[in-house]
Specification:
Strand content: 5-15%
Distance between the termini: 52 Å
Strand order of the largest sheet: 1-2-3
Number of helices: 9
Number of strands: 5
């Protein structure tokens, strides 16, 4: 069930406290997790498969999704409503972000809190639990610096943002002419007003 990116963005923007930076951070991660398929189920030899737009995997969070949104496979708005009410999302929404990269990274850190790979630790899966950062080896936790985990998050977030920005949906928005560009194009007009998909040009007489 493929969901329109425009509809998802517009729906996110109806949520209290939502900004363009926060909405696009969420969008970039949905792009990376499910490609905007509401019925996405994680593939591969995996015991605990991720579900839905956000690929919920943590047992209590996934069970909550299925219980609260029994028709989750087709109910993408229900999935978003559920995510917006999670404590992880509330932590993300309380933040103030200076740019899109920072917001995207923060969403991955605060909402997803993923087990993640890093070139610095080949073959290892880095994990964060509270203020503890580590990977497992021979059944024991091997602690790593917080900065190493954050660097892995940053790298993955940058990749997801690049993928999202390269979608046709995002390119159409990024490449929209500005008000100044419209006014320069219609040189000599008394006024140029952009109203959604309409451009109103007043040439006077």
């Amino acid at each position: 069930n493929s969901v329109s990116r425009r509809e998802v963005y517009d729906y996110l923007m109806t949520k209290r406290g939502m900004t363009d930076l926060k909405a696009n951070a969420i969008m970039a991660n949905i792009e990376g997790e499910s490609g905007f398929y509401s019925d996405a189920i994680q593939t591969g030899n995996i015991d605990n498969r991720g579900l839905g737009l956000f690929q919920h995997t943590f047992p209590s969070r996934k069970e909550g999704l299925v219980e609260d949104v029994p028709d989750w496979e087709s109910n993408w708005k229900g999935q978003i409503d559920y995510a917006m009410n999670e404590s992880e999302m509330r932590r993300f929404m309380r933040g103030n972000y200076d740019n899109q990269e920072e917001a995207t990274e923060a969403f991955m850190m605060k909402f997803e809190n993923p087990a993640i790979t890093s070139e610095k630790y080949p073959g290892k899966t880095l994990v964060r639990r509270g203020n503890s950062y580590y990977y497992m080896e021979a059944g024991k936790k091997v602690k790593i610096p917080k900065a190493d985990y954050e660097d892995a998050i940053r790298t993955k977030a940058e990749g997801r943002l690049n993928t999202y920005n390269n979608t046709e949906y995002r390119q159409n928005i990024i490449n929209l002419p500005t008000q100044d560009e419209y006014e320069a194009f219609f040189e000599g007009a008394e006024s140029v007003t952009v109203e959604g998909s309409e451009i109103v040009v007043d040439f006077g007489n």
